[in-house]
Amino acid sequence: MTILLSSTIDRTLTQWVQARLADPQPDVFWQLWCFEGVQARRAAEQQLAAQGIRARIRSSYKPLVHALLEDVQMDGLRAVELHYPVHAEAASNRFLLEAYPLAAMLSHIDLQMQPHPHGSGDDHYSLHLHYRGGRHQQMHVFAPNRRFETVRGGHGITPCGWERSQDSQGAYMHDAPLVTDYEQAYQQAMQCIRQHPWPAEEPYFGRLHIHMELPGFEQPISGTGEVMSTPEAMHEELYFSLLEHFQQVSGRPAGDRRLQPGQMVPDIRMAAGGTDPLALQHVSVRVESQALPLPEPLAHRAAVFANAEAAAQAAAALQQAPSLAQIAELTQPLFDTYGTAWQGRSVQGRTIAATYKKGSGHAVLLSGGQHANEISGTHGALRGALALAAQPDSHFAYIPVENPDGYALHEWYRSYAPEQMHHAARYTALGDDLEYRDSAPWYESAVRHDALAGSGAQLHLSLHGYPAHEWTRPLTGYIPQGFDLWTVPKGFFLILRYHDGWEDAATALAEKVALALTQVPGLAAYNERQLRHYQQHSGLQPFTLRHGTPCTISAHAASPAPVTLITEFPDQTVIGDALHLAHTAQQAAVLAAYAAWQEIMQNR
User: Fold this and answer.
1) Are residues 206 and 108 in the same domain?
2) pLDDT tens for residues 118-168?
3) Sorted alphabetically, which SUPFAM superfamilies does this protein's record hold (predicted)?
4) pTM score, two decimals?
5) 494 with 534, same domain?
6) N or C, fewer C-beta in 10 Å, the chain?
7) How far, in whole angstroms, is CA 271 from its chain's centroid?
């Protein structure tokens, strides 16, 4: 283990309050924007007010949403007209996305969202609130942003801390960005990693562990299923910033999923402050380069389920993601019956195995867990495989978890933050996306290719998921670069990829699966609601709707199978009934695709 950084940073909020108390100016009105929760901000205001100091402390993260929660009287509200900023150095829908989930928050009223007229209002939202009885209110919400330079030399704007002071006449004495502890923690970690002399060749480390303890917040938004979380946002910011940095170090193009830097593990925790929300004085940051840990072996256990039917019943009842050990138990009846046809090892040495049921139908490969934090894909593939096994003539190969190292990391993350997305568990322990690996050692990707070749499958059902709530990068432009399509949920999504000559088969498959999904109880209403909110907040619809299900169909010569169906359910962070709907829809897609493929191939 090598410690690259061990640092403490003064907490911005407590330091700022102490500075105001040290020099009271009763005629001055102070404003601060920082990355703190409402409880700490109100406590700071009250501490200052007790000494006659006027101050208002607001959130730098999603300032409009916080303003609606904290400053707007909701009783009697019947309509809202919102004008959002449009900035020359940001995507045209940047601030419309940042207003998410306003449409869900105000679903019971008339909400109109339009950009500010050209050339005006690039730093604030304007609200015109209409109440029953004819009362109206105008409101402006400042959105603090600073200019930043991207890793590739471009420019943009990103949320930041800010400080303002006004004299007794309302004139500004000071109005400028303030670098907060949240921003400093990110900057220190990234600067340390950028300046470290990494080896010349990939991988650069076994595991890069970035531990932070922040005085942030995790605030549910009632009635929306959304949770604003600054620890989660920091996890996402660090992980994708590190991918971008090491892509540049390696000389690879931006977004290259073949990059193998090693396993990157942001470990972002809420700092313990006791009952006093202002007691915490410091933020801690620690960066370590570690050897890649070896996995603990799964204990050998006697068969838990007598047969596949019993396992299927247990899998259907699960309302949280199963562990690797539970997946082994649930799939054991399949491997006992059909054997292990192909086997490989992950980077950390975990077993990856495929079973194969040979039948009279046209073979299909079914897999889950390529992206290990996408839990409904793994679960839905499991349920789909158990259901296919009950069909007498079914012909399929099945890989339960393609990326067990990532899955194990996700288990660890869920042990302390089950409601976060954890994209650091998405890729393999080498840091790459196994589908894009193009040279030996093959590790995880070998089993997929062996199963396709050995079974003769010409359709690959690759089950995936994506964030069930908003995905942001709060310190580098807000919208996740390269993933802007996935920044807010939009229902169960189908992606069809095909080789030359297979477009008709892919199109027919999309149509048949989308039609079958209309029979999943609750799914149509779920999709309709999420699509409506997605379109309201993105202004986009870059896909075709088939029977209410979003679909994209495209040629993709690099896919290992002639036709690949990728399912995408918004599953990251969901548990309980929401997860049950997710893996039920995934299973329905598997069964519909298998049945449709038999018909398509028979007529081909």
Assistant:
1) no
2) 767 789 999 999 999 999 999 999 999 999 998 888 899 999 999 999 999
3) Zn-dependent exopeptidases (SSF53187)
4) 0.96
5) yes
6) N
7) 22
